[in-house]
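I am still getting used to backbone structure tokens and would like to learn alongside you. Would you supply a protein for us yourself, any chain you care to pick? Start from the sequence, derive the backbone structure tokens from it, and show both lines together. Go ahead whenever you are ready, and we will take it from there.
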Amino acid sequence: MERKPLVKTVDERTSNNEPGIRGRGYVLMTAAYDEEAHIVATIESVLSQTVLPNRWIIVSDGSRDRTDEIVQKYAERHGFIRFLRVGRPPGRSFRCKVMALRAGGVLLEGVDYDFIGNLDADVSICDTYFEDIIHHFEKRSGLGLTGGFVCEERNGQFQDRTINRVYSVAHAAQLMRRECYESMGGYAVLEYGGEDWHAQTSLRMMGWSVEALPELKVLHHRDTGKGSNLLRHKFRQGRMDYGFGSVGLFEIVKCFRLLPDEPFLIGAIARLLGFVWSWVCREERPVSEEFIAFLRREQKERLLSVLPAVWQSRLRALP
């Protein structure tokens, strides 16, 4: 039997998503930095949702282009959209992104909701994206965090990223239960990024399940796979991996699996170099020993499922 949408018309979507409505309501947060080229598509894809958010906080993270102007115009026409501008040094920064989301959190006071999530300012989603996610939450009481698979343009078509995994929910367009968000104290502020990785690992430590849904597509419109941007991006990811306490062998296997995919040959090498660099420098890790131990147990279990038997005893001996 075909499932009926939770909300059908524009008028019904508007009236049923006023702050204070209880039930299956959700709120979104977006940090935008110089996103005039993409943010219209992001906003329009939210406006087309069969279930609108009770509130959507869009924070301009020191934007220097027309991002503020674009968001303000939409906020004037749609009451559930709230705009906030915060200042910070120029340049893209994962740390500043999460700090912007935290600053926008004050605009959620007094709003009733069951789910809270992030939506990046350079993505677009299908009309039933959040309705489908909410239905999935309803079917699985132990699910704490979920979202779709990220797709990026390659050869003129959007294709799933090679790093998409069912057990890993990308930060680009995700929802989590409010109690989960509050239990972990919100998204962590991390110098090298990885707030999505940190969130899902923290939730699994607390006994919640985490699941990405391959049938839900998140179209990522920013090109991060070419030139020096790729090298910086991957080197930073390697430093992030070290900071989280990744097992060295797991890092090697992960990078090796990227080698056949252009342009990820050089990206995989850069990521491994970032990991090694942080190891040589003995950088301080921003997470607890309990977090590191839990993450390493997970990584060892995944390695045991793919490594030859001769390597399994050596892996079990690693700290």
